[in-house]
Structure formats: C-alpha cells, structure tokens
Design brief:
The complex is a heterodimer of chains A (264) and B (313).
Chain A (H helix, E strand, L loop, with lengths): L1 H38 L5 H6 L1 H7 L1 H35 L4 H13 L2 H19 L7 H22 L2 H10 L4 H12 L1 H16 L3 H5 L5 H11 L1 H32 L1
Helix pairs in contact in A: 1-13, 3-4, 4-7, 4-10, 4-12, 5-7, 7-10, 8-9, 10-13, 12-13
Chain B lengths: L5 H12 L9 H14 L2 H21 L2 E2 L2 E2 L2 H5 L3 H33 L6 H15 L2 H12 L4 H10 L13 H26 L2 H9 L4 H30 L2 H6 L7 H10 L6 H34 L1
Antiparallel strand pairs in B: 1-2
C-alpha cells in the first residue's frame, strides 16, 4: 500500500510541475515580451518614464491621463468610504431588515456590464456636465457605482467578523452618541476591511477604460490607448508600469487578507 | 424589521412575564418615529444609487422601448437586423469558446494545485497571482499581447528570425476574433482557478479511499464519484466565465479597430456615431439584450451553485 501511495505521490508531483511549467510560460511570456519590447535598441523609454517633467513635456496627453487617474482613484476611495461605511454600519445596527436590499443593490453592478451602464449613464452625465462641467474627475460618480460590489463585500465581511451590536450597545450604555459609536468604536475595529476596500477601489479605478472612453473623458487607460496609435514602445512601457503597480497593490491586499485570517 | 433594537425586545419580553402593567401599547408610536429617523440615515446612500445606478438601468430598460411618439417595438425589432444578430452570435461564440478553454485549462491547473501541500508557498503564490491576473484585462492586456505576438512582437520576431516560422502567413489574426480568443484566455484561466478551487477542496480524500477499498480503479473514481460531484461546480464556473467574457469591452476595443464584430463594440458604434438618428435607442436595445443574456447565465449559475453546495459546500 505504501509503495502505491509513494508512486501516486511521485506521479502527482510530475503532473503538477509539468502543468505549472506550461502555464508559467503562457502567463509570464507576455510580461517578458513587454520588457523586451520596451528595452529594444537604446530608446531610453524607461528613463523618460521616470523623468516626470520631461515626460509631461513629451507626452502631455499621457501626463494628463496619469494625473486624472490618480485624482479619480483618490476621490472614488473617499466617496466610497463616506457613502458605504456609515450606511453598512447603520443598517447592521439599526435596520437589519434593510440588509438584503442594500446587499442586492450593492451587488447589482456585477450583473450589469460596464458597457451597458455607460449607455444608461450617458443622459445622467449630460446633467453632471451641466452642473459640474466636463472634468475627468466627475467620473468619480460612475466609478463609485462600479466598485460598490467589491467594497461592500469587503466592509460587510469586516463587520461580520466583529460583534458590532454589542460594541455599539456598550458604547451607547456609556453615553456615546451615534457619531462616536461609528467613528471611534466600530470603525477602528474594521480598519483592515476598510483599507482593503480602498485598495480594491484604487486598483479598479486605475484599470478602468470603458466608461472614461465612452463618456469622452480621460484617464490612464484612455491615454495609453491613444498613445498606442503614435508610439507603441511608450504605450507598452506605461502598460507594464501600470500593471506592476496593480500587481503590487493586489498582492499587498492578499497579504493583508492572510494576516486578517491569521489573527482570527 | 419587526423590532429594531435589543432594548425594545427585552422590555417586551418582560411584559410577557409581568403582564398586567398598563404600558403595553405605549412604545408603539415612538418606535415608528425612531424607525423613520433610522431610515433617514440611509438616505444619502439610497439617493446616490438611485441617481447613478437605478436611473441608468431604467434608462436602458425604458429607452429600449421608446421612440419619438412613446412606446415602440421598433428598437427591439431592429435587433433582428442581420448585422446585430451576427454580432450577438459572434459574441456568444467568443464567450463560449473562451469559457470552455478557460474552464478546462483552469480546472487542470486548480487540480494540480490541490495535489500540492494545502498551506504551502506554491499554492499561496499561484492563488494570489490568479487573483491579480483574473482582474488583468483592458487596454494593458491588449498591449501586452501586441508586444508578444504583434507584428514586431517578441515571439513573432523570434519565430521569424530563428525558426523561419511566419505566425501571420494566413493574415494578421491577432486583431480579429481568433486574437480575442487567445487574449481572453489569459484572464479566463486564472478566474477559473479562483472559482473552481473551493469546489476541488471540498472533495474529501476519504471518498477516494472508500472507492479503492471497494475495489474501484482511478478511472472509476473519476467517472463515478468525483466527476458527478464536481460537474455542477464545473458547469457553474464555466457559466461565470461565459458572463465574464460576454461583458468584456476594453480589451476588444483596444485590439480591434476595424469594424465592430461583437456586441459591446456594436454598442460603442451606436453611442459614438451620430449619423443615424434612431441609432441611440438601438444601442439601448442591444444593451438590454446583453443584460438579458447575462441575467439568464447568472441565474443558471446561482442554481448550479446551490446544487454544488449540497456536497462540496
């Protein structure tokens, strides 16, 4: 029996490593190719990318897109937190009957493709433009809807992990107002969930293209796409840089998740 | 929503025990006022989603049936145009093919992971990388593949110069549907790993041991025990991959600039072209068509999820 086990373990190991090798080549090849593509000859693409003043002088559209994306990421994270965290806490503490409805609404964007949402958002954005102008930062409103499912799940999981009700009752019993309960009692306890919601938001916003391009606004992805028509090397270099940034963000996120699981 | 907070519940419980005191009905009006005030706390959230989620959804749903003089079937009827039907057929074919390829290869990779040590570094690295790569779509992915097998890409040049193989002897397929299949596979496989791995983890080693002690072979174990148990999870994951490919827009938009072969690109055409007046509402009808397809697929997915949970939950 032991011999059979050993043989099976060896066979499984061989199978495992050959599958991983083939998949590894498929998944790493494009990344390696991007690096090779951008370092071909001595074009100095990467040194230009690291030199912000020169970059914004050479590719003003790209610089504008980068600035717009960073602004959108920041504003979307803020709006998402202001809108979702108090609502999630409030619903859990005071209106448990509303939870299914809030959850349904938050998960709804998952079943509506972004391209469909754009079709519906176009008339709404005619009003947004009328009141607030055509700035690319106004995309914040649409992006907050896009990140709802991910942010809500993260915050809701954080709230499920603590006994929010007891915490709130203890604080109320000691004379705290609802504002104090939220900001100084519940919020510190779901800090890592809120942080991971913010990380996800940033990663999603930095990768968004559909809505920005079809509502005639700019961001990083729109700028990369535009640049691809004139300078392929530069657009591939920016793609790789953006990709590495997203990788780092999401890997940090998964490490954060591991730590949270470990601490429980 | 019957009893909003714990204090009330305890008061009422005591009332049941010490019944005869007259304040039985007194808390009712206060309770309702409290509830209204509690609801006010959720007002910003509901106002926001109404404007930026509910209204856009209604715009699509109503716009698909709206014409100059009110209700009309003409937008939906225009979906019967051959170029719209072709776009839907190609979209569904593309999603089905990439879902099938992604599901099979992803399942093999996920199974390879389950044979590794459960909490080991290999598994953690591959799962984390899958999480990242499943999100990796859009313009950057298109450019990654242009750098790899574009006309002057790394692999194309290597094959041509070193091995004398011309990838594009039959035409430049990267910027057409076959190219999309290859590029979509890149995010479909990792997504499959993420959604299918929990089901594979639900398979207990005891089941295999039981099969063996009853004299079953490996073949019999996979076809009679593990296969039927995993089938709903596999089908469900495949449907999720289908919906994922069906809704994708950015990669295709960056890769394909000639013509609008799939539905999302047709919608782009309807949104950006201002030549035909009735075009805007045809876009809404196509958008509604997409929502219907995704909704059907996701409903089936939810049903299969329930079925999966029975054994592998």
């Amino acid at each position: 029996m032991a011999g059979l086990r050993g043989r099976r373990a060896r066979r499984q190991a061989a199978f495992r490593w050959s599958v991983l090798a083939v998949m590894g080549v498929f998944f790493l090849l494009p990344l390696v190719a991007m690096l090779e593509f951008t370092t071909r000859g001595d074009s100095g693409t990467w040194s230009l990318l690291a030199d912000w003043p020169r970059l914004s002088a050479t590719y003003p559209d790209l610089a504008e897109g980068i600035v717009a994306s960073l602004g959108q990421a920041l504003l979307t994270s803020l709006l998402m937190l202001v809108l979702l965290v108090p609502t999630a806490i409030w619903v859990r503490l005071r209106l448990p009957g509303l939870r299914p409805l809030v959850e349904f609404i938050c998960l709804l964007p998952l079943t509506i493709p972004a391209i469909v949402l754009v079709v519906g958002l176009a008339p709404v954005y005619a009003w947004v433009t009328y009141f607030l102008g055509g700035s690319s930062l106004t995309l914040t409103f649409a992006y907050t809807v896009l990140v709802l499912p991910y942010a809500y799940r993260s915050i809701d999981a954080g709230l499920s992990a603590i006994d929010a009700k007891t915490l709130a009752e203890a604080a109320r019993g000691l004379g705290a107002g609802w504002f104090t309960v939220m900001v100084r009692v519940v919020l510190p306890n779901i800090r890592s969930a809120v942080l991971s919601a913010a990380f996800l938001t940033v990663a999603l916003v930095l990768g968004e293209f559909t809505i920005a391009s079809l509502l005639n606004r700019t961001n990083l992805q729109v700028a990369i796409n535009l640049l691809g028509k004139s300078s392929a090397t530069m657009s591939v270099a920016v793609s790789l840089a953006a990709l590495i940034l997203a990788f780092v963000l999401l890997l940090l996120l998964s490490l954060l998740g591991d730590r949270r699981k470990a601490s429980q | 929503m019957q009893v909003p907070d714990m204090n009330m519940a305890t008061v009422m419980d005591e009332e049941d025990l010490l019944a005869p005191v007259p304040r039985v009905r007194a808390p009712r009006p206060r309770l309702r006022l409290n509830q209204v005030r509690s609801l006010l706390g959720t007002l910003p959230f509901f106002a926001y989603v109404t404007v930026f989620l509910v209204i856009p959804t209604l715009v699509v749903a109503i716009g698909a049936f709206a014409g100059d003089g009110g209700f009309t079937w003409s937008n939906v009827a225009a979906l019967g145009n051959s170029y719209v039907l072709d776009a839907f057929a190609r979209s569904i074919l593309l999603s089905a093919v990439t879902a099938a390829i992604g599901a099979v290869l992803g399942a093999v990779l996920a199974y390879a992971l389950t044979t590794a040590k459960p909490g080991g570094p290999l598994r953690r690295v591959v799962t984390a990388a899958s999480g990242v790569l499943a999100q990796f779509g859009g313009v950057t992915l298109a450019f990654a593949f242009i750098a790899t097998i574009g006309l002057s890409g790394f692999v194309t040049v290597f094959l041509r110069d070193e091995l004398g193989v011309d990838l594009y002897s039959g035409g430049v397929w990267l910027f057409e549907l076959p190219g999309l299949v290859l590029v979509y596979t890149y995010f479909q496989i990792p997504l499959m790993v993420i959604v299918f791995l929990p089901a594979l983890d639900g398979i207990r080693p005891q089941w295999r041991e039981a099969t063996e002690s009853l004299g079953g072979s490996t073949w019999q174990y996979w076809t009679r025990v593990a296969g039927p148990l995993l089938a709903p999870a596999f089908l469900g994951s495949t449907l999720l991959l289908f919906a994922n490919a069906f809704s994708a827009y950015a990669t295709a938009a960056a890769l394909i600039s000639q013509g609008n072969p799939i539905v999302p690109l047709q919608i782009r055409g309807a949104l950006t072209s201002e030549v035909v007046l009735g075009q805007q509402n045809l876009g809404k009808a196509m958008a509604l068509g997409m929502v219907v397809v995704v909704a059907v697929v996701m409903t089936l997915y939810a049903l299969l999820q329930k079925r999966t949970a029975r054994w592998l939950g």
